[in-house]
Predict the 3D structure of the following.
Amino acid sequence: MLNKDLLQMDTDNVYAEVTEKVNVFRRKNPEVKVISLGIGDVSLPIVGPIIEAMHKAVDDLSDMDTFKGYGGYYGYDFLREAILKNEYQKYGFSIDEIYVSDGTKTDSTSILELFDKDSTILLANPTYPIYRDGAAALNRKVEYTNLDENFVMQVPNKKYDIIYICSPNNPVGNAYTKKDLEKWVNYAIRNGSVIIFDNVYQGFVRSREVADSIYEIEKAKNCVIELRSFSKVASFTGLRCSYYVIPNQIYQDINVVWKRRTMNRFNGASYIAQRAAEAVYLPKTQKLLKKNIDYYLENARILKEGFKKAGYEVFGGKDAPFMWVKSKDQKTSWQMFDYFLKELNIVVIPGIIFGTEGDNYIRISALGQIENSIECIERMLKDEKEG
């Protein structure tokens, strides 16, 4: 019999609706140049030192003296050690607390298998829809809290067992300050809760008041699992490699149990991807990746200023590649989507996809190319002038 919990998922349906509307418009208007500001993928390629490491890894697989087959369930030691040295050693972690995987989308759902089925989960409204649908597929109870005036999740008055926090945030595009995170860590400690901290956009952070890792917050090691990824910061969206930390302090023998589960369910990320990820930490690679991130952040600045000139209220885009744009005439998010597509030939993402509180907003992405963003702004300003 079909698992009926899978029928609760709706992410595919809403994204499919966006895709179908865009495809219908393209078919009816083949001469029109449609530009997407809804893109979640990167537009800059993998940099040279990483490509070189991948070629070397392919050669390794051609010789049995260097061949890698099964193994590395939690990640090969060479990569886990690189992650530890460059990211987490300063917080007092050990290699046994670090796991390598094949994408945070997978990790953010799979991690729920660590907790009791009756655990209650708290999500933001709006939220990244994978959290919602992943919980639904595993038949977990989910409730929501709205965002405050700074687009930060409001701390509830009741207990929840698991809290998902995404910062820098998708879809809103803001980043939680250290003071924001302190409130949530204190809440988790008081209530015996665990925070799943999605930190995949950490490489975009430029503000001093934003933590590089939630483990900068006192006692966070007692209550937080942090997720990270190479997807956006190193253009691994097609290569697939992620990592996360499970502190020993959360529960006794937590990593013993999780390693047992991982060996049963996962054979590890590919050797080629892990060698590529190791090369991310080379000094020459870090310089190139900073240039890429600076490009996306400059694109975000251009888009944010352009939307403001066109009369929109815009949030985010400072420490993240996403922005949250409010309707200026009470249009619903689908009405905004239709307007941008049909009148301006621009693709945006309706905020309703991310939750009921997103219905007067659209999400735009700065992961595209700057020249396309400039053209989009020119279209908006021209339409505003002719208005």
Notes: The CA atoms of residues 102 and 269 lie 5 Å apart. The chain has a mean pLDDT of 95. The domain at 67-281 is CATH 3.40.640.10 (Aspartate Aminotransferase; domain 2). The two ends are 56 Å apart (CA to CA).
